[in-house]
Amino acid sequence: MADRFRSIVVADAEVLPGRSFRRAYQFWLEAKGSEELPLISGIKPSKIPKEILARVALAGVEEGAKRFRIRLVGTGTVRDVGFDATNTMGEDIEGGDEIIRIHEQCVETRGPIFAQGRASWSPHDFKNYATLLLPFIDCSGAIKRILSYVEFS
């Protein structure tokens, strides 16, 4: 299963494949300012660029970074994958192991992760995905939210 996707830690927008991914990364950079990571309070729908809003998802990090509750899924992503995973746990999504591993990697590296792979968790088996995961911390410095931007092909 590990060879179904590839991921990299993002340190520069130039590694991202297109304007929308770069805009999502820029949003994250602006939210963090000079800090190591941005605070959860930086996730405001009014601040998320309109061109990426329909394709964002927000996951809550629970139980020591090993469980992820999907708190919000954008309307464009819901339409593309064929279901709304809002308010579900990552492990409850059939084929979601890949999603969990990428989220774990984001928590472990404490940085943005760009990943590409086959969307095995979508009922549309012809789809591939590319996603950028962006970590946000609480006041203790623990990563508690991961905002992701995703595109399908």
| Number of helical segments with 4 or more residues | 4
Annotated CATH architecture? 2-Layer Sandwich
Sum up the overall morphology in one term.
globular
* Major sheet: 7 strands, antiparallel
Q: Helix- and strand-based class?
A: alpha+beta
* Proportion in helices: 10-25%
User: Cα distance, first to last residue?
Assistant: 20 Å
Name of the CATH class: Alpha Beta
Q: Tell me the number of strands.
A: 7
CATH superfamily: PAS domain
Description:
This protein has helices at 19-32, 50-53, 75-81, 97-109; strands spanning 5-9, 56-62, 67-73, 88-89, 113-118, 128-137, 143-152. Helices cover 25% and strands 31% of the residues. The longest helix is centred in the first third of the chain and has 14 residues, at 19-32. The two termini are 20 Å apart. By secondary structure, it is an alpha+beta fold.
Give a short summary of the structure:
It is built from 4 helices and 7 strands; from the N terminus they run βααββαβαβββ.
How is the secondary structure organized here?
Elements (H helix, E strand, L loop, with lengths): L4 E5 L9 H14 L17 H4 L2 E7 L4 E7 L1 H7 L6 E2 L7 H13 L3 E6 L9 E10 L5 E10 L1
Antiparallel strand pairs: 1-5, 2-3, 2-7, 3-4, 5-6, 6-7
